[in-house]
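Supplementary Note 3. Input sequence used for the single-chain structure prediction.
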Amino acid sequence: MTTYTEVFGSQTVPPSGCGYLSLSLTGNTIFEWPEIAVGTYVMADIMELSATGTYTLTLPAANTVSNGRDVLIRNLGTTTITILGNAGLTVGAVAAGEAKYLYLKDNTTVAGLWAIFTFGTGASAADAASLAGYGMVATSSTLSQAQAVVSSSIGYTVASADRAKAISFSNAGTVTCALTTAVTLGNGFFISISNQGSGTVTVDPAGAETIDGAATKDLAPGVSLTAVCNGTNWLSVGYGRSTQFQFTKLVLDVSAGTPFTLTSTQAANKLLYFSGTITGNVIVNVPAVVAIYYVQCAYAGAYTLTVKTAAGTGVALNVSTNSILYCDGTNVVAAQTASTPTANISGGVAGALVYQAGTGSTAFSAAGTSGQVAVSGGTGTPTWTDGGVITHGYSSKTTPVNADEMLLSDSAAAYGGAKVTWANVKATLKTYFDTLYVAPTVVTAPIPVIISNQSFGGL
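The predicted structure, written as discrete structure tokens, is reproduced below.
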């Protein structure tokens, strides 16, 4: 045993306890208490051990120290170290990477009664509840991911306390989900937004900030996304489109800045709505990928707007034009075309009429002859006849009035149709008959005056 001499007086004093020991075991090793050590291996309060093989560590005699004596053994090696009592019985084992805490409960025997429990396995244990924060919840002694749900039927403003939450909208009309400034929420802030209502939810970043490069992002019913902040703007993750409301709309003011080059996010909107007032022809370049676009030219100005790819050709549209365009990856062309048939409709012959024979079906009348007119068959086939049957089918009027009209064939206009009023017919007949007869002369004779005197006197 090593002896220690007091500095003042040169008296022998017992050794102090050993606080820390780092040792690599090369075989089965028996330890001693530092107070009475006579060998090489002395117990310490904290022991960091490793072993070159599967060895045992034998504790000193328990009856030479008091109850409560403790030791922390941490295994930094790759093999298990077995701990034995002084009588050779197993107290426990310390696996690789583990730390075991031992304390003496009964020192009445050499072996003693030792308590042992795992102190840690490479990392300290913590109170899960005290560590739970945004997006985390304590589940017993562990932390689990969590996403709290907030419901709203009206507009909502996302604040710092909403980190990692999910906002569920149950709106009947259009509402706005406003985002607090990106610099306030910070890089890494995220929130999930789900439209469970029947109207549009508009995600609106603060000020001039954008989401996916646009000023706003509309969520149709059934659509959701996770909005992630990068400290300056916003981007969406997991944006899903409803199969029922799969069309989204881009509103672009084309008043100034031609040519306009759409980003992939802008071009993802199938409906392209162009507004503003233009003072010259405008070009809008779309990505050179296969896509179809529904274009509405709602701008003001008598100029064209051409939708094309940057290196390809396109389609020039006029103001108030609505069109469906198709991009084949190189050029943009009109998706619909119109042309005159080069042959009769199948089943038809010259002089026949096409009519609706029933819901979703058509048929042909028999062929008419020159000069005939078609007469409706009501629910049946139209028929051909001369014009007399039309007049014959009209109701009668005994006394015509001046405003009544009659149909005639105008010989001076290649026998085209014309009308004449009853007043004009009478005037024309008068003019004509006046040339055939001399108007009678009316003689006005003096009216005689007869004077009769019935008195007895003279006149």
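The radius of gyration is 53 Å. The first strand starts at residue 4 and ends at 5.
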